[in-house]
Amino acid sequence: MGVVASAHGRIDVDPDVLINAGKRVESLGSQLGMLCDSLSSALGGGIASGADTAGLSFALDYGRQAQDFANTLAKAANAYKAVGRMLQATG
User: Fold this and answer.
1) CATH class belonging to 3-90
2) What residues contact residue 39 under an 8 Å CB cut-off, 6+ apart?
């Protein structure tokens, strides 16, 4: 069945469909979390940038952007997991 809207504004949802959707969304969050862990260790390993002014500037910008990306990816993973759990609980 899935989701059915009636003429009176009521929404009927098949609980099993909602639970299964929640499991899939939570699974995506777990996969994003694993990707975040892998990328964090890869991005945090440092890079050869040289010791001149341009190299140091590049290294500092790279490090900041890599950390911002890792933080954003972690937030997305946590959001997917939370929404997945809420969908399962609602079903």
Assistant:
1) mainly alpha
2) 69, 70, 73
